[in-house]
TrEMBL record:
Highest taxon in the source lineage: Bacteria
GO cellular component: plasma membrane
Family that this chain belongs to: Belongs to the TRAP transporter small permease family.
Function field: Part of the tripartite ATP-independent periplasmic (TRAP) transport system.
Pfam families: DctQ
Membrane-topology annotation of the record: Multi-pass membrane protein
Principal place of residence: membrane
Protein name: TRAP transporter small permease protein
Subcellular localization: Cell inner membrane
Domain Tripartite ATP-independent periplasmic transporters DctQ component intervals: 50-175
Length: 199
């Protein structure tokens, strides 16, 4: 059955604007909403990284006075953004996936697949969170148990490696929580009575 035509007139060949896509997946809940809002800070981080690179080029080639911190700072800011990007994709349901089977089944079976996929991703996220904790613990504590952040060993010697490992752990724990929320909400959707149009 074909769709009903859009009742709005097509003025001078200008098509009507596409529907606005939700910023976060409704099943992601308030956590998903918060993740998509926080992501704007990381977008600003990329702009700051670019500004630092421009400053470094200017100082190096105009004044012949390069900094000791520019390379580490841009690497650090970019790494933070890429780490957070995985969590952002989960909240928006925009990660890369193979949908060969998913796209050909009915809505009810898709809901079942959503639950199974979320459970599998929850297990993987918990596993990687545990591995990230092992890395973060080594980056935070010396073998004798004293607190000391791992540093880069460069001329600037920043604690960026330790901060990134701790941040990775926090993101993976949050990602696990997000997959748990998704699993719960997909299960709630599965428990709803099936309508004739859902088949």
């Amino acid at each position: 059955m074909s769709e009903a035509p859009d009742p709005r007139p097509d003025i001078a060949g200008i098509a009507s604007p596409p529907a606005r896509r939700l910023e976060h997946l409704p099943e992601a809940g308030r956590l998903g909403w918060a993740i998509t809002r926080i992501a704007r800070l990381f977008a600003v981080g990329i702009i700051i990284a670019m500004a630092v690179l421009v400053l470094e080029i200017f100082l190096r080639y105009v004044f012949n006075s390069p900094t000791t911190w520019a390379h580490e700072t841009t690497t650090f800011l970019s790494a933070l953004t890429f780490i957070f990007g995985g969590l952002y994709c989960v909240a928006r349901n925009s990660h890369i996936r193979v949908v060969l089977i998913y796209d050909i089944v009915g809505k009810r079976l898709r809901n079942v697949l959503d639950v199974l996929i979320s459970l599998a991703c929850l297990g993987a996220s918990l596993f990687f969170a545990w591995a990230a904790w092992l890395m973060a613990r080594k980056a935070m504590f010396r073998p004798d148990g004293n607190f000391a952040l791992e540093t880069s060993g460069s001329a600037w010697n920043s604690p960026a490696p330790a901060v990134l490992k701790i941040f990775l752990f926090v993101v993976l724990v949050t990602m696990s929580l997000q997959f748990l929320i998704l699993t719960f909400n997909y299960l709630r959707g599965l428990a709803r009575p099936e309508r004739p149009t859902d088949a």
